[in-house]
Amino acid sequence: MTNGTSSDAGDIRRSPARGSPPVLRLSARAFDSLAAGTDQGEASRVLWRSEQNRRRLLLRALLDHGRAASGSDGPLPPLDVAWDLLEVAEDRAPDEVHAVLAHPPVGRWAARTLSRLLGLAHSDTPLWVDLGYLHTVAAAAAVRAGVDFILPVPVRHRVLVLPTVGSGDLPTRHVWSAVTLHHERGRLRGAPDHPLCSDAARASETWRPARTLRVTVNGLVLTAPLEDADPFRHSSAPTRPVRLSAESARRWESMLTGAWKILVDRFPRQAAVLTRTPLLLAPLPGRGRFRLNSASSGDAVGAVSLSEPDNETWLAETLLHELQHARLGALLRMVELLEPRPGPTGYAPWRDDPRPLKGMLHGIVAFLEVAEFWRVSRTVVSARARTHADFEFALARGQVAEALRQVRDHPDLTRAGHRFAAGLALRVDGMLGEPVAVEAGNLAGLARDAHRIRWRLRHKDRRPDGGDGPASARAGGPWAAPPALLHGVTELCRLWLLDQGDFLRRASRASDTRTGVLAADWRLVAGDLRNARDGYAELLRANPADERAHAGLSACLASLEEQPAPCRDDAVVRPGTGLTDRGADRSG
């Protein structure tokens, strides 16, 4: 699809300083398989290779610009010293160097630091510390290749991190420091007298080897570093290490084992793709009861920041969700799907903020995979879990359909972008006719409508076509710092379906707070529509501007057939999707 037909990518393990990466091409068949959800691995292989090529080009550009930056070395030797060590390591063990350069945080560091050198990004971290990450990359590659060296490297917050190798504690005097690292036959020490380990693969009081989870189901192996130390492990600004306890690591391994079994058993094609994906898990604080808090970015394809799971099903769903983000991020760098210009933003049913076209497309692709996950899962789960699986399927397919109506004919799509969007639309259209349990369909419709109405009320300055409102709103309008989350009703629907006993206990103690969930919302989800209506009306008498109460009351009145739900717009909402009585089918 890109500049011709498919061809073999060739050997990508080239010295970062020598030669150019091979040209890659994505066939039309492989391109279409990404939209249709039928990729057997051909498209993904090309995408991952393109990311590896891009990373080497980023490294070369970073070296060139870093050389020219005034004062960029600080207390470290020039970047060329680290580069030379990287070449020596690659000459001895190219596979080991390849593994270090493929480490997702390396890509994020390279892109972020290059943006800083080009004046496109700012950081309070000294430039020599950020550039010095190259020294730690070279040191890590040399350790893995068995090359002895002496090299000054940066230390952040008194922790030395060697990507893919491990991290060690060093008693430095300052937040940003440089130490001279000695490596000799596996032994590491920070000069003059700070031994780290006698073997980089073994833990000591001052050294922690990199932790990698490895799980096997039916002979299919999934490996994923569990990264808690690398400063570039998250998509936000460089992050301090947050050491995982051994018990927490065991829980992660247990959850990943269960999730992998689900994927291998139910989604063998996607599981096979995941085995070849540069996957990395970076734990976030907190533990969600239902859907996990997760995030990823295109500069670190394969890296997933996520909260600790307490259910393997949610982890399995999240892995497929994030795999789609990774593939689309790589695809967008190979194929021009969008015109590179600012454009109007729109309503993404899974987000509280207006989204640009690129963000909309990412969400559509990811949540289409979520819909597929629950479409398949609902056929194999127990009868008790079936209604919840139906709810998740109906919710996701309805969200994707609503978002696609805004995107499919968007003027900023290129010819390839229109072809891709048409493929996505064919896939979701095939889902819309599938029946779901009445209660599941009704609750999915309720969740979507409640979110949409509240979003429209909050962003009331926006035009009906999804375009921007006044310039003052764009600069710092009602969505700049939302006071409460908009998806509270969705979470209540999940609780109702998964644990009605807990729902009723918590509903009896519910009070109106700023968390986004009102006492009346509990009654709405439980089907107590008249008491919910009275609760919303009472709130509006006390505060006529309460967007949450307005949205809830609209949903109640629509369900009670007293009036149609407001804030409808045929450009965004399909006609005939208003809330109905709980006895009617709202399958979405």
Description:
The chain is of the alpha+beta class and 588 residues long. The chain is 49% helix and 10% strand. It is globular. The chain starts with 27 loop residues before the first helix and ends in a 29-residue tail after the last helix. Mean pLDDT is 85; it is low at 1-15, 463-483 and 562-587.
Shape: globular
Ends apart, CA distance between termini: 34 Å
User: How much helix is in the residues?
Assistant: 40-55%
Q: Count the strands?
A: 12
> What Rg do the Cα atoms give?
26 Å
**Mean pLDDT score, rounded?**
85
Q: List segments where confidence is low: pLDDT < 50 over at least 5 consecutive residues.
A: 1-15, 463-483, 562-587
Describe the secondary structure blueprint for this structure:
Elements: H1 28-36, H2 42-68, H3 79-92, H4 94-101, H5 104-117, H6 127-131, H7 133-145, E1 149-156, E2 159-162, E3 166-169, E4 176-184, E5 187-190, E6 194-197, E7 207-209, E8 212-217, E9 220-225, H8 246-266, H9 268-275, E10 280-284, E11 294-295, E12 303-307, H10 312-334, H11 357-377, H12 383-407, H13 415-432, H14 438-458, H15 471-476, H16 488-498, H17 500-508, H18 519-526, H19 529-542, H20 547-559
Parallel strand pairs: 10-12
Antiparallel strand pairs: 1-4, 2-3, 3-7, 4-5, 5-6, 8-9, 11-12
Helix pairs in contact: 1-13, 2-5, 2-10, 3-4, 3-7, 4-7, 8-9, 8-10, 10-11, 11-12, 11-13, 12-13, 12-14, 14-16, 14-20, 16-17, 16-18, 18-19, 19-20
